[in-house]
């Protein structure tokens, strides 16, 4: 008898230990209540079993003028029914709560996406041969030792529905010593229908070059985007011996990508 009880207590102790361990790891109330009900049902069944096995009601005198078998059957059915009903009610309650929360979350995400779309900037990129107005100038270090000073003038115009809060341009090419990243201007905001330019100065020789641009920008609702485009650039010699004329062979612009977080950019002066 004692050995059976000890074995049962050891099994229950292990069961309680793992229930408590998983209970502490639960992420919602439904999982916690499930483990609580499991412990209660397990304990209830074990107690009923040993009350019946060792005839405890008779030893305590509880069976006087009472049909113990009938009451045992009633208690078993009643306890099981109560536990099942409670568990079913808890499941129904939390499923309903989860559905309501899911609906609210979907509505919030829909409203947030509509707000983002209503504030979505759209950028147009242009390259100019000459520009007589004052603009932001940036020097790019190249791997070319004996070249002539040339320039690439990039214009960015906001043709979208709302203002750009911040805008950065990353430029890379095989002939550059490294990738460079610059702010579009001192005030890098770009209002609706506004265009700003940035002039890149570098030493080149007559040849064809493939430049890769990545434009990072932020809308009014603090969403970040990245748009990538490639420029095939050709520097041609002219009769006076200088190399200042260029032609753009092709510009390939990809669709913008919404970033999950603010980009980590190393901004050059």
What structural keywords apply?
alpha+beta; 269 residues; 6-stranded antiparallel β-sheet; 4-stranded mixed β-sheet
Calculate the terminal CA-CA distance, rounded to whole Å. Answer: 85 Å
User: Could you report the average pLDDT, rounded to the nearest whole number?
Assistant: 80
Largest sheet: 6 strands, antiparallel
Strand content: 25-35%
Number of strands: 10
Kindly name the structural category.
alpha+beta
The percent of residues in helical segments reads 25-40%
Uncertain regions spanning at least 5 consecutive residues: none
Oligomer: single chain
The shape, in one word, is elongated
Q: In DSSP terms, counting alpha (H) and pi (I) runs of 4 or more, how many helices?
A: 4
- Radius of gyration (CA) equals 37 Å
Order of helices and strands: HHHHEEEEEEEEEE
